Sequence to fold (620 residues):
Amino acid sequence: MPEDPKSPPPPPTGEPKAPAGQPVPASVQSTPVEKPPAATAKPAAPAAPAKPAGPVPLPWESPLVTKLQRQYGSGIQEAKSYVGQNYLVLDPSIAHEVLQILRDEEEFEYCVDLTAVHYPQREKQFDLVWILYSFAHNMRLRVKTIIADGESFPSSVDIWPTTNWLEREVFDMFGITFTGHPDLKRILLPDGWKGYPLRKDYGIIQQDQEWVQINLGIESGQ
Amino acid sequence: MGADQPGDRERPIKMTDPTTYLSHLELGEPDKTFLDSNELIINMGPQHPATHGVLRVILKLDGEKVLGTECVIGYLHRGVEKIAENRTYTMFNPYVDRMDYVAAVSNGLGYCQAVEKLLNIEAPPRANYIRVILTELNRLASHQLWLGTHALDIGAMTPLFYTFRDREEILKIFERYCGARLTTHAFRIGGCQYETYDGFEQDVKNFIDTAPAKIDEYEELLTTNRIWVERTVGVGKISAEDCKALGVTGPVLRASGVKWDIRKALPYANYSEFDFEIPTGQNGDTFDRYIVRMQEMRQSLRILRQAVERIPEGPIMAKVPKIMKPPVGEVYHSIEAPKGELGYFMVSDGSTQPYRVRVRPPSFVNLQALDIMVRGQLVADVIAVIGTLDIVLGEVDR
Fold:
């Protein structure tokens, strides 16, 4: 049975989990630079006043931000701090360069994690998120860039070798490709699998039935 | 599986064809002086007792020497991150126990604290003390299990019986506290669901009193044991620079000489109230990692002693809404799990279900260092290095 009719998750090509009127995460609202007016109009306006109790992202000021802003100007789309956690939103065209600077000059020598978030209702659907840490400054920093579906991003394996597997996982789960990656292939799912499970339009019980039938010799994995 | 079925020849995907792997390794010419042998590609695992689960390592060998490795993982992939997006915050809580099932309490602590950060609430002091006690007990249990199985892989059978005997004491405390021994689901978002049982403090105190002598026993069996030393000293070396570049954390990083522990660097719960040391090694080899973990067990006992003596009275749950709708936002929270940095990156869209939960598993990232650690070493050392990395495949594959 490919799909359970009772289950709430959406069909493969249907609409995403969050309804259109649903507020989108804070960082998304505050990046009007990247977004066309059509996408911003519905979610952004009611979201902020609807949740007065919640913490809001505050501007993050530090010598690092000043330096980067002087060098890249509007390429640094956002420098904010949310519940004490600092993050930068970068234009994808400069993101790889800034990551290199962050490691070489600002001593963020440990890339904790790299992941992605899918927002199907936006025009540029994917957030790529690096979580960096500096041993010298005992500081954690989140770097984010927003890219469109089908757009590939320069691999950061040359900056932090640890991103090798992390990029493979992002590719495996979201289908985002990284140019210059030494060996970009699936990591958790089998090589021949079709579909990218962590995209919002991939149903929770959806599977690559063909793969299951061929390789496991059973009709369905469900 | 179904290897002799009629449709076999048309199969587009061959699950076990090692030639599809190892394409990226620049291995150079084989060393002809060593037994004059040619390169050999063999599979280790996934059904191999020394791979601690279902890890498959493809080895490129020249005789006994390892030229390169590639890990094939995902055999235990259950898609927990996808499941999280389709569950409420509370419903997902028990799932995290199934990642690193050897240290389920740590997993739960990280998750609960990440959601608490999203909700902007804090657990009351007594809950924090209970959390620290159970988490440190779990660290001991995890290290004991690691020691037993690691020694068994290398050929020393006795430590396994010793460590399992003592781990039992910890699991009994868990069982009395929450009814479960492994997948404990001990904590709730906002604190702990259960008050400690009568005699909890006494049980923990008894454990603390007897444990140092037991750790001495393990050390007596191994630390100066000639076979153990031969099999571990200088095996699977990794430098501090390589550790940082590869994102390796936990005891592996500390054994390479980096004094870094999230409990000290970015304290969470109430770890800043306790007095303890961060043990480090110098050589970054298997022996140092063993020594670091043994010392960590003693430091955990130190934390436990302080926590049990100072545990305050008071509520164990913060005021948490019945239906959790964290405000829109993103947080990253990480803890020092027994295996390294365990992080949760959570995105809330203001609804009852998380928009995205990303787990940063220490085992997954640490396993990446296997290749660099075993190149040029012998096949038997691969077993030692897999053991010393202390991976749990449930967490690697999620």
